[in-house]
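Have a close read of the entry that follows and walk me through the local backbone shapes. See right below:
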Amino acid sequence: MHLSENWPDLLEPGIRDIINGEETRFSKKDSMLPILYNMMTSGKSYEKYSSASALDDWEDFTGTVGYDDTYQGYDTKIEFPEKVKGIKIERKLVDDDLYGIIKQRAEELGYSYARTREKSGAQLFNDAFTVESDDNVSGWDGTELCASDHPYPNGSSNTQSNEGTTALSATAVEATRRLMVAFKGDNEEVININPNGLIAPIALEETAWEIINSKGKVNTDDNNANFHEGKYKLSIWKNFLTDSNNWFMVDMNLMKKYLLWFDRVKMEVNQDKDSDTLVAKYVGYARYHRWWINWRFICGHLVS
């Protein structure tokens, strides 16, 4: 005999499978997170990163070896907020579930979790020009991800910019590529930046696609070959990049090194064991966060 007080336990395995399945389906099919972020797990209460100064050029040997002094750069501390959401399922609904309502509720909890994660990932780009840190991140160089005044940690009065205001076009793409190639390291020396990706909202998808895929020079009557053809990987973050004009150029390899996502506690589904009514409560729980530990992988355009 199945006692009424045990029925939530009997329902739990199916609910859990549906929720996990829906979150996985969204992630594999639609998520941009694994494409843009370095996806990792964490077993700590927080993650901390520190940068160190780069070395100067080698010099000719004249009898003694010159040793560089190194210094600590910027620190970043990433903490993990708790994320929760619950659903309730009535006993009568289980008995009369003729239209798959329970399955729909479970699917929605999984989809809601995946959507929340996607929004969190996109928010870093949406806030790229305005937010220096958030409630769960501290440190780095005290500027926004895309800023006009990134400082050097060596005390130099010079700064660097990875922020523009130009609308997306073939000309703007080339100017941005040249700007990124000229980025300097923390010791104000040349570094190797390879801009090979564009990130844009769906409103700019057609423009970006034409820039990358046109055989001839874009939007001209010239018969010149298109310098940008096949040069960049296009990432369109449908529905999650909230500004229809802003766009970003990235070094995809450096982005995977400097743009971090940590899953501290992956999504789990727990049953409320304290309920003594004929209502089963299922609570989803997770902890994760994302941030950047170096801005040099990206240049963004804040377009009015």
